[in-house]
Every structure is written in C-alpha cells, then in structure tokens.
C-alpha cells in the first residue's frame, strides 16, 4: 500500500469521526417528515426572510478543498456548486445523483476509466465572471495541496498521477489526468474503472475556484460563490457565518436549490440542550430556525410525544449507517468461526435498541448494508437470534467449538455517551452473552484511544463495538473499505477490522466497480454483502434514526436518504 493511500485513509477516518461526533450532521435520511404541501406551516413556500441555523459544531474549514462532504454538503451546498449533486427530494428519491454545474451526470468511456462532463451555459461566479472548466480543474488541483488538506481522499487514489501530485502552489503545471479541451468540457482519466464517479463528483472538491481569487489558506474567509448565496461574514472559523444572496446565481441553471430566504445566519458553539429548547420554544428569530447537527434524545422525544404541535415539527431521517460488533480473527478465540457465530446467535437486539435510545432512534440490523435500495440491500439473517437472542443455539455452537463450560472474553468500547459505541450498548451485549455462558469483561477507552485501537492494523482488539457510514449511497464505499484485502493498512487507519483478504471478494469488488449501471451494481453489492455475512466477521446491531426539531415558521422540509437531515437549500421561512 503506497503512502498516499495511507494518508488518504487517515483523512477518511478523521472525517468519519467528525460526522459521528456531530450526531451524523452530514449523514442521516428520512421516511417521514410531515413536509408535504409546504412543510410545517400552511401554504406554499415564498421567498424572503432570514433563516437561522443553530448548531453545536462550527462550519470550520469553509473552503471547498478542505471540506469532507458528499452530495455537496448542507450549508456548503448553498455557496459551492459541483459538477453533480444529490437529488433534492424526500426519502429514497433523494439518493439519486443529478447534474449540477454539468449538463449530465457524466459520460464514461467503455471501461469507466475516463469520464467526460460538459458545463451548462450561463454559469457565473458571484462577481459575474463566467465559470469555466479551467476553474473546476484548478479547484480540484488545489485540494491536493498539503496546506488545504481535509477533503475526501478518492481523487488522490483514483486520478492518474494523483498519488504524487502536491497541488498547484508547488506544481503549477497541474494534473495531466484532468483535461480541459475547451471552456465547457472537462475530462478525468482514472487509474482503474470507477462506476461510482458521478457520486464522487458531488463532493465540494469539484466546486470551481477562480485562480486569480485564490488566497490559499485564507480563501475560506471569503470563498467565491458559485451557488445561490455568498459569504459576507465568517467569524471564528465558522462559528458565525452570514450568507446573503448571490445576485449572479440563476435558478435557470440550477433546478436543485430553491434559495427561498434572503439571508442565512449560522451560529455554532451552542449546547445541544439549548438548541433543542430554543427550537421548541420558537420565539423571535428562533421561529425561523433549524439545526443541521443536533439530534433529539430519548428524554426529549418523550416530552415532545405529548405535544402534537411539537411532534409535527420533528423531521425523521435515515442515513446509510450501521452499528456493529467487530471481530479480529487473528485474536483467540475469535479465530474460531463457531465462536463468532455463537455470539451472533446470542445477541438480544431488543436490549441493544433500548440502549441506543429506543425504537424511535434505532432500527435492528441483521445485514451489514443499510436497508436502502440504493446500497443494494439484500435481506438476510444467517444467524437468526430473534428479537431477544437465541442463547440455546449459542451454547450449542460453543460446545462444538470446544468451550463446553463457556468462555470469558473482553469487549472494547468508547466511554463517550453516544449511544452507539458507548457503555450502554456494551452493557446490553454483555448481558445477552451472559445467558449463553459467555462472560464479557468491558474495556472502556476514551474516544481518541478507542478510535486508535479499533482502526489499528496491528493491535486492534479481538472484539469491539464499531460503526460505519458511507460517503455516498452505494454499496461500494460501504463494503470495500471494510472487506477489501488490498485496503488493509498496518501502520495507519485500517478499516478492514476482520483483516479479510479473500481473492474472490477482492475480484468481485473490482468487477462491480466497472459497472456504470448503478441499479445493476446495487444488486451485486447486495449479493456480496450476503456472501460475506456467512463468514460471521461482524455482528450487525442497528441502524440509527435521526430526529431533529425545527422552528414553527419553517416550511418546505425535505429530508433525503442521502443525508438524512433537513436540506437547507429547500427551506422557506415565509
């Protein structure tokens, strides 16, 4: 594994951690949102007013090169347009890739190693200058600069020459694998087939940046807008952002963003309880407020449940995310498949769901892939434990494995109270396994130490709580990092917890990556998930559900299964 890939995976690990820490701020997606016919209020949405955004985490590194987003992000998507973007629609319809700056989602060559895009006519920056293919090429190239690190790693690994490129500040000649034959055409040349390239083209690295306006690390203070809003204030590295209309943005070239509010005021650094209280009360400016990173907890949901008006202002989202038990088969007794199967049979998913916050905030999982068509979800339950576990079957397997008198193992978890990898969930697992004759000793680590342990390629625990969320709604970014043997990293962030290096699995991943028919690819990802599941290399526990409150004057609430959270580009406040 070359050094560039190791670096990329460290960046990916950091991004996953940030997403989780923020309550999956950029990652979650809905089935119901009470948003038909204009949303919370009555009547159709109208232009005007100020939308307030109340968040715990600042919108830091507000530079398209440094942001780790998919689908264009949420707040970033108001300022940065990309070649493609997510379909701004409710539920499953929102998992589709659609054109943004480009006229289509990309035209591949015969083996998907080359992708060509044509820009729409009439595209302009906030100062009225035309957006060209050279601006997109330069925007991508600057994301390779060390001083602008933090974005998604895919282009460094996928583009020919990307592994060694250091950005335009050191190498102004640029990447030969990004070709701009004219002002409206851009061509990408890849190391290997990538049928998911249209998904990657939704990330903010694909936002155009005018070379003459690039101020390096200071660009985030006043980035040049290609979207419906421009930045007029950025205080405290994203703690307070003020956005106003970009007069040169046109809805004629952008059918995805509505840009209803005249002004958007984003304030961060707030306590989660304070945010939910302010949204609940909805007094003054808070009546036209939302949050993009703060969920409701079990206690708050219990209070809201008795108030019909408040309950009608809760958006529900589902995102491609799975919480699971991970095994390191290199550590005894987890090298024995029957031991792993016994644990799978013993799990009481009802108690795990309760520990995760209850059925309103978590749904049981028996597959690694999330239960969405876009991922290729194929139902299976190779080790059926029912709702409360099957300790008898677990004991039978333990006897077959040579543990007639049971066994004692350790389970590593985080001490952070996140209801995913935290003590509550670990305790639920401990109690379930006890009924099967398995004594579980809990090993709690603070968050940084926990992440270092579970992503270690050399010293990961034998048994630990983990979780994974995809960068876009496809089976590829879900299964490949976890089960592709060529992505095992010994001296960096290793996501292949089982250290699986199966030639058949690796080959199938390559074959699916060649497919540009996303529906056909999804079916193959589902079949691969079911095949890997037979090996009992993990125990899927649950998929989180996101519940977020919004102000009483907020209209046109749209929550897709791509993000799982309210889409800020659709909101109206009048």
From TrEMBL:
The Solute-binding protein family domain, residue ranges: 96-486
Swiss-Prot/TrEMBL keywords: Signal
Stretches assigned to coiled coil: none
Top-rank taxon, per record: Bacteria
InterPro entries given in the database record: Peptide/Ni-bd (IPR030678), SBP_5 (IPR039424), SBP_5_dom (IPR000914)
Renumbered residue ranges of the record's region Disordered: 28-69
Name recorded for this polypeptide: ABC transporter substrate-binding protein
Naturally occurring in which organism (per UniProt): Streptomyces hebeiensis
């Amino acid at each position: 594994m070359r050094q560039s890939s190791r670096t990329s995976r460290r960046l990916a690990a950091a991004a996953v951690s940030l997403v989780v820490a923020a309550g999956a701020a950029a990652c979650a997606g809905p089935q119901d949102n009470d948003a038909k016919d204009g949303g919370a209020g009555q009547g159709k949405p109208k232009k005007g007013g100020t939308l307030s955004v109340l968040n715990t985490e600042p919108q830091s590194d507000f530079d398209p090169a440094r942001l780790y987003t998919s689908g264009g992000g949420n707040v970033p998507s108001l300022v940065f347009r990309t070649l493609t973007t997510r379909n701004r629609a409710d539920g499953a319809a929102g998992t589709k890739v659609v054109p943004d700056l480009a006229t289509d989602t990309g035209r591949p060559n015969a083996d998907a190693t080359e992708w060509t895009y044509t820009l729409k006519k009439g595209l302009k920056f906030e100062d009225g200058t035309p957006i060209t293919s050279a601006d997109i090429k330069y925007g991508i190239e600057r994301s390779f600069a060390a001083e602008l690190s933090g974005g998604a790693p895919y282009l460094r690994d996928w583009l020919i020459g990307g592994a060694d490129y250091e950005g335009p500040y050191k190498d102004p000649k640029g990447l030969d694998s990004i070709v701009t034959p004219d002002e409206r055409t851009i061509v990408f040349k890849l190391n290997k087939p990538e049928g998911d390239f249209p998904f990657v083209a939704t990330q903010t690295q694909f936002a155009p940046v005018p070379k003459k306006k690039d101020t390096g690390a200071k660009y985030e203070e006043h980035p040049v807008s290609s979207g419906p809003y421009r930045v007029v204030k950025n205080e405290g590295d994203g703690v307070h952002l003020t956005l106003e209309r970009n007069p040169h943005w046109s809805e004629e070239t952008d059918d995805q963003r509505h840009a209803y509010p005249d002004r958007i005021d984003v304030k961060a650094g707030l306590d989660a309880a304070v945010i939910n209280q302010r949204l609940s009360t909805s007094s003054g400016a808070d009546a036209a407020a939302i949050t993009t990173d703060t969920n409701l907890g079990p206690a708050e949901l219990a209070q809201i449940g008795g108030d019909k008006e408040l309950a009608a202002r809760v958006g529900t989202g589902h995102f491609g995310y799975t919480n699971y038990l991970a095994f390191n088969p290199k550590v005894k007794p987890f090298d024995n498949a029957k031991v792993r199967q016994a644990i799978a049979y013993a799990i009481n998913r009802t108690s795990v769901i309760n520990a995760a916050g209850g059925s309103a905030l978590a749904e049981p999982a028996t597959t690694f892939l999330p239960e969405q068509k876009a991922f290729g979800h194929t139902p299976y339950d190779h080790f059926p434990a029912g709702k409360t576990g099957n300790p008898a079957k677990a004991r039978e397997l333990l006897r077959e494995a040579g543990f007639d008198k049971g066994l004692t193992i350790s389970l590593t978890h985080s001490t952070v109270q996140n209801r995913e990898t935290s003590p509550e969930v670990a305790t639920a697992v401990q109690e379930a396994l006890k009924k099967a004759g398995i004594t579980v000793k809990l090993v709690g680590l603070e968050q940084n130490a926990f992440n270092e342990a579970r992503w270690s390629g050399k010293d990961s625990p034998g048994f630990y709580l983990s979780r994974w969320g995809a960068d876009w709604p496809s089976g590829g970014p879900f299964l490949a990092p976890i089960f592709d043997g060529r992505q095992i990293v010994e001296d960096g962030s290793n996501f292949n917890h089982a250290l699986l290096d199966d030639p058949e699995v690796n080959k199938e991943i390559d074959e699916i990556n060649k497919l540009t028919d996303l529906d056909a690819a999804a079916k193959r990802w589902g079949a691969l998930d079911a095949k890997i599941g037979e090996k009992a290399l993990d125990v899927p526990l649950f998929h989180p559900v996101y519940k977020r409150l919004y102000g009483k004057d907020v209209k046109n609430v749209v929550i897709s299964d791509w993000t799982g959270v309210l889409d800020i580009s659709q909101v109206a406040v009048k």
